[in-house]
Structure formats: C-alpha cells, structure tokens
Amino acid sequence: MARALALCNAWVQKGPERALWCFYLMDFLRWLFDSSDWPQRWHCGEWSALHGYTHIAADLAIAGAYFAIPVALLILTLRRGRDLPFPGVFWLFCAFIMSCGLGHFIDAMMFYQPSYRVLTGVKVTTAAVSWFTLIALIPVVPRALALPSIVRANAQLARENEARRAAQAALRARNHTLRQKSQELEQFVHTIAHDLKSPLVTMGGFVAIARAELNQGRHENLEKNLARVERASQRLGELTQGLLDLARAGRALGPHTSVDVQALVERLAAELRARAAGSKLRIEITTPLPPVPADAGRLGAMFENMIVNAINHNYPDANGEVRIGAELHENHVHYFVSDDGPGIAPEHQQRIFGLFQRLSRNDGSTGVGLALVEKVARVHGGRVWVESTPGKGATFWVALPRVATEEPEAVDIDRSDDQPIIEAKEAAWSKGATLD
C-alpha cells in the first residue's frame, strides 16, 4: 500500500494538471461508493436472519459460478490456441458472464455496504455488454449452425478411416499380386534357359549329325536322326503350348457362374477313357462333386490337368485306378484326384506346383500342368496341395470357395523356396540324373 501511495505522489508531483485529474478521480470515487443516502439492506423491510443470509449465500454462489465460467473458458482458449472458432463472440460472452457475476456479488454486499451507484454502473455495463454480444451473435449463428456436429464429424472421420483402410488393403493385395507376378517371371527366366533350350539343342545336334553323314554319303542313321529331331520339335511345341495355357490362366477371369462340376468331370473322364482304350487303368468318380462359382473353361482345364497327371503317374503294369471326389466344408469345397502311382517324397510335395518342375526327366510331362492347376485355383481364391506317401500313390487336393471372391489375387501363396529347387533341378539334370 505504501508503495502505491508513493507512486501516486510521484505521479502527482510531475505537474499540477495531474494533481487536478487525481483530485477529480478521487472525488468521483468517493461519490460513487458513498452510501450515506441509503440504509443497509438489512434495514430495508423486515428481513429475518434465515431469509437474509439465504439471499446473500445465493448471490455469492451465483457470482462464484459466473466468475469461474470465464476462467474455465479462458483455460480452454489458451489450450486450443488459434483453433477457437468465433473468438470475438467468445470474449464478449466472457465479459457478459463476468459482469453478471459482479452484479450478483455487489447485490450480496448491499446488506452491509449499500453502494447503489456502483450497482447501477455494473448493471448498465452488463446491459451494454449483453446487447453487444447479441448484435455480434446474429451473423455468427448461421455459420455456427453450419459447422458439423461432433457426432457427424466422428461419423465422417470413421467413414474416411474405413475407406483409407480399404484402399490400403487393396494396395497390399495389388502389391502382393505384383510380387507374385515378378516371382513367376523370375522363375520363368531361370527355367526357360534349360527347359526350352534343351529341345533346340537336341534338334540342332541331330541336324548337324545328319548333315555330316549326308556329306559322307551315309544314310543308314538318317531316319533315326530325323525321328529324334521330330520328337524334340514336338516336345518344344508341347512346352510352348503349356506356357500359352499358363499365361491364359493368369488373365482376368470371365464371369463367375455356377459350374456343374459333376457333369464337367464326367465328360472329361469319358474323353480320357476313350484315349486310354485298351489300358487297364480305371477312372472313377467316387463321391458327388458339388457345383462352385467359377470360370467354367478354366475349371475344365484345371481338372483335365489333374486327371492327366494322375494317369501319367500310375504304375503302367498294374490295374491302376484314378479316383475323383470331393468333401464339402463350411466355406470351401475340397476336390481331390488320387492315383496309385509311386507317390511323392515330402521334400518335393510343395515344389511340384512350380513351373517346369518334374520329378523325373522321363515322366512324359512338360512340368506346366500342375503349375496351371495352382494358378487356376489361386485366381479363383483357392489353393492346392498334395498328400502322398512314397510307394502308396498321391492325392492332389484343390480347395475352391463356395462363394465367389472379390479379390482372388490377394490369396497368399508362398513361393520363397522355388529358386533353390530350380537350381538343384538344373544341377542334377546337367549331370544326367533325376530328382525322384
């Protein structure tokens, strides 16, 4: 207090005009807070203690709440920084609430200090701030109503997040497909050097031998050499056709329709029985084959390759049998084709579905059929596997969904072990060995 008086005296001493203004100010304040013309509110009417103190407590409680609300809003404003919408109206509301609280506080003090002039000034200030707030609020209301509610904003945010997650899932599926295509191309590059080059080397070698013998006037081996060239050219044609079939299997699917698998396989079995006329081999459908939604042409190619593979690997000197059937599961149909052949060792059961993968160079296959089976199953959202014990035949399985999938290419197929198998195969064949 002494410090304040000292500052006031120093300010007054700087000039007589300041002293005059200070005198007028002090005189105004004395007049403003003068309560000699009014009695304390306790003496205005008949106040009981309960009534009076209840009135005082209520006014003080209201004033406390009015003072606390702007403080809370101020803290919120400082935390949000520039994100606060309509700051002008916000500060007018704060001033309005604060002035209302001040009015209630002075009203409570009127029981002891009847400062009616101060109360009048506070009420005039409250009225002015109230109308300023109302005038400022009129153009703001339509803009405030246009702001999205928290519920709508959260719903919109949830929809955007869901769309983002769907886009990310689609991107992951496309990336997986791209990696798969890249792996298939890499596998093709590594295997084509041997599997397609081998018939060409054979043809070139026997043509060179035939030319040399013709130059020497020798004709006794000409027919044999030309027959070998013809077989090599046929082999090359089979490999080329197999690659074309495999490429077609990876293109966009046609419309999914419910395929009558029973009729399709019965027709294939009849055709293959006719081709194997005179053979002891039997082709039997052991269980009903439920229909599935699929591309009928590709499904036919898949079953044909599975059955032909089983025929080729049955023991030729036994009364072998190819069995075809299905098991119905909750979401998939598991089709199988079994044979009575030599079986497949566990270490080869995964890699035989790769391109140009054969257990023996002399098995008569191109190494493309099972790769085509795997690809057709995959583009339909299914998978393939084999169950076999060496010496006891093999059962090839294909699981296809009972409902058409929207993103069949997103099925996770692990091909990480293909490259070591290819290298081992080429190394073994370079030495004239087989892998079975």
Q: How many helix segments?
A: 13
Return the structural class.
Answer: alpha+beta
Q: How many strands, which pairing sense, and closed or not: the largest β-sheet?
A: 5 strands, mixed
Strand order of the largest sheet: 2-4-5-7-6
Task: Report how far apart the termini are.
Answer: 107 Å
User: If you compute it from the alpha carbons, what radius of gyration comes out, rounded to the nearest whole angstrom?
Assistant: 47 Å
**Strands, total number:** 7
Low-confidence stretches: 407-436
Average pLDDT value? 76
The rough form would be described as: rod-shaped
Helix-strand sequence: HHHHHHHHHEHEEHEEHEEH
Beta-strand residue percentage: 5-15%
Fraction of residues in H or I helices: 55-70%
Please explain how this structure is put together:
The strands form two sheets. Strands 2-4-5-7-6 form a five-stranded mixed sheet. It has a two-stranded antiparallel ribbon with strand order 1-3. The longest helix has about 45 residues, at about 150-195. It has helices at about 1-10, 15-35, 50-80, 85-110, 115-135, 140-145, 150-195, 195-215, 220-250, 260-275, 295-310, 370-380, 420-430; strands spanning about 255-260, 280-285, 290-295, 320-330, 330-340, 385-390, 395-400. The protein is about 60% helix and about 10% strand. The radius of gyration is 47 Å and the shape is rod-shaped. With about 425 residues, the chain is an alpha+beta fold.
